[in-house]
Amino acid sequence: QNFRIEAADGSRFVLKIANAREERAMLEAQQAALSHIASNIKITPHVLRTVAGATIATVVAADGTEHLAWAISWLEGRPLALGTWTSPTLLADFGRQVGELRLAFADFDTPAIHRDFYWDLANGRDIVARFREMVDDAEVGKAIDRLMESFDRHTAPLLAELSRGAVHGDPNDYNVLVGGGTGDGEVESRDQRVTGIVDFGDMTHSYRIADLAVAIAYIVLGDGNPLAAASAVISGYCERVPPSNEELCALFGLVALRLCTSACIAADQQRQRPDNEYLGVSQRAIARTLPVLAAIPFALAEAVFRDAAFRDPVLATKRVVAFLARQLEIPPILGINPQLAPSIVLDLGVASDLISGDPRENTEPQLTARVHDTMKRAGASLAIGQWDEARLIYLAPEFAIAGSPGEHRAIHIGLDLFAPVGTPVFAPFDGVVHASADNRAPQDYGPVIVLRHETDDETEFFTLYGHLSRKSLDDRAPGSIVKAGEKVGSLGPAEVNGGWTPHLHFQITMDMLELGADFPGVAPASQRNAWLNLCPDPNLIARVPSERFPKWSGTTLLSLAKRREVIGGSLSIAYRTPLRVERGWMQYLYDDEGRRYLDAYNNVPHVGHCHPRVVDAAVRQMRVLNTNTRYLNDLLSEYASRLIETMPAPLDICYIVNSASEANELALRLARAHTGRRDMVVLDAAYHGNTTSLIDISPYKHAGPGGTGAPEWVQVAPLPDVYRGEYKADDPEAGLKYSALLGDAIDRVHAEGRDIAAFIAETCPSVGGQLIFPPEYLKYVYELVRAAGGVCIADEVQTGLGRMGTHFWAFEEQRVVPDIVVMGKPLGNGHPIGAVATTREIAGDFNNGMEFFSTFGGNTVSCAVGIAVLDVVRDEKLQQHARVVGEALGPQLRALMDRFPIVGDVRGSGLFWGVELVRDRETLEPAGAEASFVANRMRERGILLGTDGPYHNVVKIRPPMPFTVADAERVVSELARALAQLPPR
Ligand code: PMP
Asked: Which of 908, 904, 906 is nearest to 925 (CA)?
């Protein structure tokens, strides 16, 4: 039994009272181990002494039994098991610590650990054999049998080769602590770190790799992708200690063995003590996971693990590749010789223009028509689809990857050869038919024939031919012999292609993974390198001239390095691991490996990324005319009228510019021309744009890092923040009271002997933390400003165009009419457009003889785009949609406040929300690092959102408007998952 003891001085330690049967020698061994490894490892507890100086004391229980007791230091943190395993960073650190443990144990030994112990992995196979029949659950039993059958074949022969030594024996997720220690106080790094490994009571002398196997065994119980999670741990481990080849080969088998052992022992114990629930603590997860593991071929796991360990994933690949490269002549595999025929290599990748962002457009016959059209234009009789290409077209459920939201098997690991139906297919080498099948389910992918070959040093490899005619299967029973150059079959029609245009899917495979002819042709990006080694480049055989293939675009790291070389460092990139995006569609973004992200952040693609009506409007107008406002073209006045139509009187004049910064600059000039004054009143934490004057009126910038403060013509008033500010949401007078603070700012200008030109504010401060003003705030403020002779500018850049759901413009909700309205971001759905609306009177004063001209502002294409955006907002009823989704999202977000004390406030409307995180609901200490932690975990789970507010502690949800109620539910459930990983405070 373990007790946490808190001393009067606040110090903590753990008192451990051993079971009466526990041997003293084993306790001494644990203590010896702890002091031995303490010199290497900083994250294990140290042994404390009694007043008399002993490390072990004897205590007597009420019934007279004697127990050994001892005490160790207390480690901060919480068990890893209470998290939800999403973060590769954390898993890698876990791996590093398990590696450290191995290093620390390298020269430790003591007789007590040479024992016959139930949980020793070296006994695991016997334990499973002994208790297997106790397992009642048929599914679990089947999975155990299957795993043990593979274990006996694949793993057992390696066991004698595994190095042995002292091991912890049970670094399971309840014995590993996360997020403790004082560290640098950065949650994003601290909570991504293992800060404790405890409970050395299972120490034995066993396989040194056992600790890694046990660690992984409990990691894969999470709902993440098991091989991906395991890979992260392995990579971390290998940073500290390189496992031997045998250890890497045996690892997956040992992981499976540990879980099978656990299931069998639990089944036995459950029979003996059916009412002891603790015995089954991990069993539900184990029962769920064993069938998943049983479906993973051991050879695949080995390749993935080897890749994670920075080794060649498949040892024999190099030999086969060298053999193929050495062959001067290989008979052509197709009736149209890929080596000679005029051919074109297609781009079917994420950014391909043959592929649409709209999945409905990637069906037949459109796709085939586009491929044929490309071939015709290139005069090619053969088209080639590339190996190692990430594709967006495999979106059917069978391509989804469990535990990795948004990821599909996207990496094509064969070569496609598009040619007419009936084109004959030939064997490149002598071989034997290894497998053949007609794959009709879940979709008809038609006949596949697999040939087995050998290199001159008798290394086996396979070639695979997919989408053949059904007739090709005649006389191709497994075992039949095929000579080099002999016909294998012929290309089948579209029906045997899942409806796609006729083509041969040609693939090389090093290992059939016991999958037979139903072998995958696309692989998950998270296992990319392992699969590319299992299935090396088929062009080693097909030999399409290499210059026809496009240049490799490089890795994300290279892309980052290149950007850093040529782009100023003040341009930041989101996320710890930058996202390399290549395509957008509605509320989704896709990275270069085809992973889909739900964009819950980006308000610029207002009507949806790449909305076809907006794209068409731009393309059409680009073809016809794009010029500036010095000529008459009705699009300018049409667009301006359309914007003005959305505004109340007397806002009936409009200027079109290129950005919101330009629009705010113009707003400043309008106000100054109208009032003849210069001074501005702004709200704290505001951001209005990137130009020199706008930095001056943006405390978010001028009062932040690198800023030089407010100039004398700018007065900053406190934000009317009813959560964090002086007056709270429950104060019915908050609006009035905050406006008085703004009045003070005006008075300060007067005290200097000047008058104000204008007050400017976002109607709902966004970088200020997604705030919603208290009722009537702007009404009172506008009265004060106007009484002082100033004009009122509403920056509606973030909030306009129906985003708030209830109104088209946010100022309408405050029931005010500004003198100047500034618009930006969403106007062009990504095309750069800004706009200013104002009164005829102010515009008249601005027309003082100095011409106003913006070269690109109001150009013909921009106007066409702007009109299309307004059309879509109207036709797709996006404002009402935002209201409906907001009404679903708000209550769900608020419910998080009940579950997580860190969620201090939730506010917003429509598709504009802020979730403010605080470490303490009384002091409101901002939880900025935690917010960043949440944003990074969400990105790992395929959801993009950001953080904002003066303390960067507000999670900002502000998606493109097509975002649905289902998307909202997903965001909330993932938010809950990310929040659950934060330490309780
Ligand atoms: N005003 C507000 C409220 C903004 O959020 C921004 C951009 N974040 C701007 C103005 C400036 O917009 P742009 O970058 O298009 O110039």
From this structure: 904
